[in-house]
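Worked Example 4.2. Consider the chain below.
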Amino acid sequence: MDSESAAIVSIVLEVAPEHIAMLKAVIESYDNLVTMRTADPVRHHLKLWFSPQHRADVDAILAELAATCPMRRIA
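Applying the procedure from the previous section yields the following structure tokens:
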């Protein structure tokens, strides 16, 4: 196993509170793709962790959700 395949990638999203449950439900429907946790509950920041091999899939899912679940990438 090379070091890149063992690495974990993370992103932080700011999501309006009324959209968090829907985003969580959709993300969790893709078993073992992403682990999602609240990074800052006051600012509604969510942190997603995933393997580098799944970056394109995660980006595609988030792009598709952007129309119904406005979000802003923080990090």
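The helical segments are 3-6, 17-29, 55-65. The chain has one domain: 3-73. Compare this with Example 4.1 before moving on.
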